[in-house]
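Reproducibility note. Readers wishing to regenerate the assembly model reported in the main text can use the exact inputs given here. Chain order matters: entities are listed in the order in which they were concatenated for prediction.
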Amino acid sequence: MSSRSTFIGAVEIGTSKITALVGEYTGRELAIIGYGECSSRGVTKGAVVDYKAASECTHSALEQAERGAGERIELVFLAQTGGHLEGFYNEAAVNVKAADNMIDAADIRTVSDLAKSKELPAGRMVVHNIRRPFRVDGRLVPGNPEHLVGQRLEVGYWNVHGQEQRLADNIHVIRGFNLEVRELVLASLASGHMVTTPEDRQHGVLAIDLGAGTTDYVLYRDGGAHTTGVVPVGGSHLTNDLSIGLRLTEGQAEKLKLRFGRATVQARDKAEKVWLDGNFAIGDRQFPRQAIEQITAARTWELLEVVKKKLGNAFSPETCAAGVVLTGGTAKLPGIAETAAKVFGVAAHLGETPSWVAENLRDPGNHTALGLLYYGVQAQSDRLATDRRRGGFLTSVKKLFASN
Amino acid sequence: MTPRNTNTPARNWRDIPQQMSPRTMSQEGRRRVMMSVLKTAGFAAVLGGLVWGGFEVAGTFREAPSKKSDAIQAAPVKDLVLMTDGVLEQAWMNRTLALPRNTSLMALDLYQLRNRLLASGQVRTATLTRSFPSTLTVSISERAPVARLSAQDKDESPRTLLVARDGVVYEGVGYDASMVKTLPWLAGVKLTRAGVTFQPIAGMEPVAELLAKAKMEAEHLYNTWKVVSLEHLQSDGEIEVATKNATKITFGVTEDFFRQLANLDAILDAAAAHPEKSLREINLAVGPQVPVAFADAIPASAEQVAGRSAAPVAPSRATTSVPALILPNFSHP
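Running the prediction on these inputs yields the following structure tokens for the assembly.
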């Protein structure tokens, strides 16, 4: 291991499972060297409701990942989701100050600060300020407008904010392991970054991360994130509906969902029945397959409709040429891509894990943690480079005392 | 929930304090904190130690540069350790070095002490090592004597000196007298004074080789050798050996000593069959044909000579004045 490497942890505190990854960042490349996972406890719809239980699970996953990596994590990128997250769009415009109308860094800073300066209600905090492309005299500028000539500079920000206590709870869980949270990343941005290509993002693509407790989405346009959102409904609601509709326990309903659940109704024979366990044990029961499929399909359709409704005018098939990409644990539901295509009226497919990801991590449920690491490193590359420069001799000496 | 425009930036998640609270930490978290604290403390301790040490050393040199060396010089030599591959003893070393009492280790002039040791020809090499705080270790390798000689200065009684393989002449110390008695005397050499010692004897190398080979391969012959003369070594390349029986044996330095010794052994064996004849001279330096001279030659008839032609040693018409030629039936292995 290089003494100049930074060991970064990526943690997703999800409703069904908590995932931790360890990445070794050398300044040029990032390698995943550790993985830890723990069934989630104390987390509902992406929010920590039992601090102790959630801490224990998260710390267990972190410990497992560190053990696998054989290194100690130095800082953490934490995924953020939950129904408390909201977003709004705000834009600002300034007249270019220079006499020759050439835009300088001060103009850009001023207009950016103005667009971000929005007072939030009490108890709310900004999680992300996602910048949309600049406009110079109404002309779209995908990159940096510095040194371009124009009279009026405009920019808009999609500002994501969340409830302070919820954010603090998540951060404290990580601090309880004596680790610094360096970056808080929206789960949708992390997974979206993983399953879409730069070309997709340029053409317009909607990435939907269907988790157990929440559904996170991000709409990309013009190469960047345009709108994000969270729907506090996920795969566990499908389980819940099955449980109520078929009068089953949560565990039994989950089992049926995983074995026979579909996002489209395929069974034509109403009389076709399936066994709950299929092991002929006492208590094993039969259920109509069509009923199971109808329940899961209806709920899935409804969920995707909610996402479409929340996107509102931001989404249109014309601005989403690359279609819809689905990811997350619930995206494994058969037929979900067909349903999404019908709901959104564009092509839909399941997000693929890039080929360079190790076989044991190639699961839609891990896309958020993987994306978190890569998106986080990209967002923090300047700061991480500074950290590594600060390292040098002192870091080397400190490493002499490190016992892993 | 409608955000309002403002001039101040909204609160960011980075404003959430990330201090540690032991209450909120898990057991693993506390362990990590403990490890971190220990590491930091260890690092600080080592760094502090280095800084303190640096200041101490710098201070010592700044205030009194001689203080440090004085402290070292103040330690007197307590132990003298001798390591040798020969016979010299501790008492000899103490006498030779003659260190003053309470001399400190650093005050010793090791070069001078080494010269004192080397002044005795018996010492071939000497290494002196300071082992702090108070031990001087002397490692020496000694010369081994190959011959002895008797020297006498004016108005002095004769004294026995030993000669090493490299020709160095020295007064042997610590040798067993019985061992010294087995050494042959050296003759035909001229000793030249060099201060209190003598110049090394030139050409001792082949002599030492002959003696060593004889001692190793034919000790029964070697034990009869009394005097080894180097008189004709430089001029004729011959080493003359006088035995206890007054036989003069001449070895040639250009011939293989082993072969010559084997010839000699064969000749002596053959001669032993004729106790009535006493050998006076055997010259092994002339090649395969070895002239042998008898002290009391008895004229032999032609028949007798012919009848003994098959014998390994066949002296014919040997006289005191005309040596007979013999052809030993001996082949080198």
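We highlight two features of this model. Chain B touches chain A through 31 residues (CB under 8 Å). Chain B is about 35% helix and 25% strand.
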